[in-house]
Amino acid sequence: MHELGLCDALLKKVDGLVRENELEGVNSVTIEIGTLSGVIPRFMEDCWEAVIDDSPYSGTKLIVVSVPGKARCADCGAEFIVDLEDMVCPDCGEKHLIPIEGNGMTITEIEAY
Ligand SMILES: [Zn+2]
Predict the structure, then answer these.
(1) What is the pLDDT of residues 76-104, one digit of tens each?
(2) Which residues neighbour ligand 1 (ion) by CB within 5 Å?
(3) What separation in Å is there between the alpha carbon of 70 and the centre of ligand 1?
(4) CATH number of 2-68+102-112
(5) How far is the CA of 44 from the centre of ligand 1 (A)?
(6) In the chain, where are the structural domains located?
């Protein structure tokens, strides 16, 4: 599952930051997921629980914030909010869209102690 791999990578990143900054633990991790990334926030939360189980981060909360995807039309240059189910330019009706925002995952906050 796509989300499981992402959670695994996320945990490694968090672990790296904790070691680097000599922290003791993490209360919560906040991530932003773009609607164009195809990642399902609910699956992320479930997979997170699975990867932190039996790890030093068991109990760390994952907060997922969904951000709207933005794309540019390759034909007329219009920029607009889109979602994966409706990838059509509202201005000219073409489907040659280039994702410019909301097609990835970003860590926005780590609450550590
Ligand atoms: Zn267009």
Answers:
(1) 999 999 988 889 999 999 999 999 999 99
(2) 73, 75-76, 78, 89, 91-92, 94
(3) 13
(4) 3.30.2320.50
(5) 33
(6) 2-68+102-112
Considering the entire predicted model, what is its pTM?
0.84
Query: Which pLDDT does position 92 carry in this prediction?
Result: 97
What tens digit of pLDDT does each residue of 15-39 get?
A: 999 999 999 999 999 999 999 998 9
**Is residue 22 left, alpha or beta, with left meaning phi > 0 and alpha meaning psi from -120 to 50?**
left
Distance 65 CA to ligand 1 centre (A): 28
